[in-house]
Amino acid sequence: MPLACGSVVAVNPNSTGTAPLSPTERSTIRRGAKRAVAERDALWALLDAGLVCHLSTVVGGAPLVLPTGYGRDGDTLYLHGSTGALSLRTAAQGIEVCVAVTHVDGIVYSRSAFHHSMNYRSAVIHGTAVVVTGAEQKTHGLRVLTEHLAPGSWEHSRQPNKKEVAATTVLALDLTEAAVKTRTGGPNDDEEDIAADTAWAGVLPLRTVWGEPEPQTAHIAVPPHIAGRAG
Amino acid sequence: MPLACGSVVAVNPNSTGTAPLSPTERSTIRRGAKRAVAERDALWALLDAGLVCHLSTVVGGAPLVLPTGYGRDGDTLYLHGSTGALSLRTAAQGIEVCVAVTHVDGIVYSRSAFHHSMNYRSAVIHGTAVVVTGAEQKTHGLRVLTEHLAPGSWEHSRQPNKKEVAATTVLALDLTEAAVKTRTGGPNDDEEDIAADTAWAGVLPLRTVWGEPEPQTAHIAVPPHIAGRAG
């Protein structure tokens, strides 16, 4: 039943990805090695499919975790927010961050309460977030962030002016030190419980879906990059 | 566009909830006070609607954040996992944790890239996680966790035996120090961009939906507590 508690397990030793992740001791998954996926492509896909990350920093010796948007360009994860934001002020000092992105794909109903679980995909990234400086570089980061949140919006909407760029802190985090963990498939019950056969076992899938666009503008048709997002 | 970056902000001074949250300096939302919701009921509803939290701890001076399941009973949040899990071993020593639960409700498309945002509900809880001891208390925690993940499963499936209870660490976290932040509604564009009226603005809602149950057991009908979950 625990999700990625203890997600951190030896990465798949049989991985043959051409651009493998580079786990260090802390990002090496210690439990559930069969769930570990070492390929960088999997990390990218997982990040690209998400909208929100959970950004963790240490503030005054205590942990702080906040949800925030992000965007990915190659092996760089961009994070941003108002320059007044506590978490970004902290990270701007060059301290370490830990970032998690998680997708829940279903509830795994087992014959025993103990083996209840979730199907999920999660990525945990460790690194030092650095503040992006220079208007051109910041604007690039903002473009990546905007296009992640709302693909097509960078060209469709008004792009940031100098004041807006200045008012935003953009952080860059290298994706080198990362661990990906997934669980798929049905329950893994004990033999005795399978033999007893007294409880339903299976998966209840969960997915996120887009609703109908809710326009604020009266006479502009919903553009294709928004109307088409639901696929 | 930033989500709850800097989510941490004066709680609603007009709150009249009978059981208000008790924000401290670090859990007091400093930005976007109008988004802060101080009522404890809102916290409970937000937690009850989620499946996964992000549990942050400090390990060797560095932040660690991992997704994990949880359950709520009154003002106690239960967390658990294998006793071998890194995050729970750390928390079991009585150090501080920070836990976030986030729901993304939609993408806010603005006339300017800068004002793009998300509609969301998020809770951030600070506290010291304590290890639940005693078989009865642990079993209660496991029941809360199971019923959160899979309502109805505690009675339907085989309940944990002594060995399983012993193999699981159950943590309890008090919900006293918590902050809730939400964003709802359409975009908040600058007047000039509204006047220009050149880009679509509105909200693309996002929601999670249950799929059809995928049975592993051949001849047991999907029980009502599972079949009825989709509402």
From TrEMBL, chains A, B:
Listed InterPro entries: Pyridox_Oxase-rel (IPR024747), Split_barrel_FMN-bd (IPR012349)
A Pfam family: Pyridox_ox_2
Name of the featured protein: Nitroimidazol reductase NimA-like FMN-containing flavoprotein (Pyridoxamine 5'-phosphate oxidase superfamily)
Organism of this sequence: Actinokineospora auranticolor
